From TrEMBL, chains A, D:
Cellular-component GO terms for this entry: molybdopterin adenylyltransferase complex
Pfam families in alphabetical order: ThiS (PF02597)
A Gene Ontology biological process term: Mo-molybdopterin cofactor biosynthetic process
Protein name per its UniProtKB record: Molybdopterin synthase sulfur carrier subunit
Family the entry assigns: Belongs to the MoaD family.
Gene3D superfamilies the record matches: 3.10.20.30
InterPro entries in UniProt: Beta-grasp_dom_sf (IPR012675), MOCS2A (IPR044672), Mopterin_synth/thiamin_S_b (IPR016155), ThiS/MoaD-like (IPR003749)
UniProtKB/TrEMBL annotation, chains B, C:
Pathway(s) this gene product operates in, as recorded in its UniProt entry: Cofactor biosynthesis; molybdopterin biosynthesis
Top class in the EC scheme: transferase
Source taxonomy: Bacteria, Pseudomonadati, Pseudomonadota, Alphaproteobacteria, Rhodobacterales
Record's function text: Converts molybdopterin precursor Z into molybdopterin. This requires the incorporation of two sulfur atoms into precursor Z to generate a dithiolene group. The sulfur is provided by MoaD.
Highest taxon, organism lineage: Bacteria
Record-given protein name: Molybdopterin synthase catalytic subunit
Assembly: Heterotetramer of 2 MoaD subunits and 2 MoaE subunits. Also stable as homodimer. The enzyme changes between these two forms during catalysis.
């Protein structure tokens, strides 16, 4: 499947791009993270500590073990600091 | 319910007056305004957000507040982009027949907005730029509700 | 600290803007506005007060809030006399570096102001006039602090 | 001693005046209430249920057993309803 993968805040800066299209057969968010991490060092460094990251699938906050199903957009980012 | 995500400044006072006038059956209006603190060193703040998700997340949070408390109206305005010291970052307002609901709902909105709405703050000083770290106490605050 | 007791109307929005601008080191401003509810039957409200005591009582309440929380500033405005549905009765505002203190202090101010400041409300309807009775819950609310 | 005695809200309406000068030797607020009550029915009716009333001596809230000492102003009123 083809996913839009988005990065925000310092994660965006470390990976060096705000979004990309990813061809993947990942079944869960964690699988997708494993695929990205295997690609290049900058991904491995960025995703080093998953506890310091949050994920949204199709614009809903979820967990790293969430299934991707028919998802079209996955976003990774640090804990939010609004308000 | 009125939810706005915008780069432009807004006039908190004008928003309060408009909000308070909108529902004459409300006896109690609470507002919270968040401002860029002028602590000397800060040049400006940059707020990044997730455009596709932001309005949706704020709407969900406001709907949760409305389901939980007897409110007449809810307003949320949150800016993104470049903000200078003293500028308004965001504002929430709640209107209810009674003060307890209006206070609790505004407090709840702020706790959720802080940790569940996709905004990220970066502070730019003379020494460089740094992303604001989320506080453990912000996440813990959600357990109050 | 700014404490005002007056018969004249005031502009809550203008007060919020002035208050928020006054202390640039405040990141968080909370306001509460109390309005005369337009519930159909009410013609107007009359608020009696105890001129010699009112400003003193409000000042004491505001000082207690400032002693208890880390606040940058406090505003209290309370009207007396004849007020029509939709009009602003009163307003409090608190400014602090952090939201928790600003929220708690505004909530505290309202609880104390409700039961410890010498104001009495009378509601005038088509059927006559009636003094508003204090609620047991208002007195009980003070135990929270 | 000479006291200014003030009445507010429905107490003012029942007694029929907002303030009066009172010559008294009352030692406490309760003594003063007893003196006023003995005067006329409208006072007796107004002061019937002290639990429904509040008192301020020299503009400070206090209790009905408070001493009057050198007080100059005593105010009686129902529970406050500001805000």
């Amino acid at each position: 499947m083809t996913l839009d993968v988005l990065y925000f805040a310092w994660l965006r800066e470390r990976i060096g791009l705000p979004r990309e299209r990813v061809e993947t057969d990942a079944a869960t968010v964690a699988d997708l993270v494993a695929e990205l991490t295997a690609r290049e060092d900058r991904y491995a460094v960025a995703f080093q500590d998953l506890k310091a990251l949050r994920v949204a699938v199709d614009q809903e906050l979820t967990d790293f073990d969430a299934p991707l199903g028919t998802a079209r957009e996955v976003a990774f980012f640090p804990p939010m600091t609004g308000g | 319910m009125d939810i706005r995500v915008q780069a432009e400044p807004f006039d908190a006072g004008a928003e309060l007056n408009r909000f308070a006038a909108r529902r004459g059956d409300s006896g109690a209006v609470v507002t919270f305004s968040g401002l860029v603190r002028d602590d000397g060193g800060l040049r400006h703040m940059e707020i990044e957000h997730y455009p596709g998700m932001t309005a949706k997340a704020l709407t969900e949070i406001a709907e949760r507040a409305q389901a939980r408390w007897d409110l007449r109206d809810v307003l949320v305005i949150h800016r993104h982009g470049k903000l200078r010291p003293g500028e308004q970052i965001m504002m929430v307002a709640t209107a209810g027949a009674h003060r307890a609901a209006a206070f609790a709902a505004a407090d709840f909105l702020m706790d959720y907005l802080k940790s569940r709405a996709p905004f990220w703050k970066k502070e730019v000083t003379g020494d460089g730029a740094e992303w604001v770290a989320a506080k453990d106490t912000d996440e813990a605050a959600l357990d109050r509700w």
